[in-house]
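Hi P.,

Sorry for the delay on this. The queue was packed all week, but I finally got your sequence through. Input first:
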Amino acid sequence: MHPEKVIIFSAPSGSGKSTLINYLLDRGLELEFSISATSRPPRGTEQHGKEYYFFSAEEFRKGIEEDRFLEWQEVYEGVYYGTLKSEMERIRSLGRVAVFDVDVIGGLNIKKILGHQALAIFIKPPSVEILRQRLQKRGADSPDKIEQRIAKAEFELGFAQQFDVIITNDRLEEACRETENTIRNFLRA
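Then the structure:
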């Protein structure tokens, strides 16, 4: 395998990105999920070091000052998300390929830093209307929150062309196959 290579996934909320990533992690590709860091509090049963590395805003800012992040953003005032350099080192020490699940700006920032080492994949919904239906069906958000996610999705879709590959998740089985083939080709190159 090529632990110096990384895979970046970005997509609007509800595009099926997490489903695709979970599928790929079980395909024998020597991939390892990169756990992001955040300063938001844990939700539900989330645990430090499993879903995210949770830090206070103060601890996160200290990490920024100490150059501990490959990339980071202040998504909302006082709420940071980022990728720890130590997480990449952890995955490389396992001889595995890091898989990043990051927002569009974070994905493009990682791609800019790592260049040809990184394959940046944008998962696109078939349409904004289908995305709205998926978010409503999910039942996790209020109508206002869904509209916020739709507005963010429309913004994020404007960046799709800057990614190496755009995969439209219309039919999950096809999207899984196309994504797996794309990654296998990238890792062989």
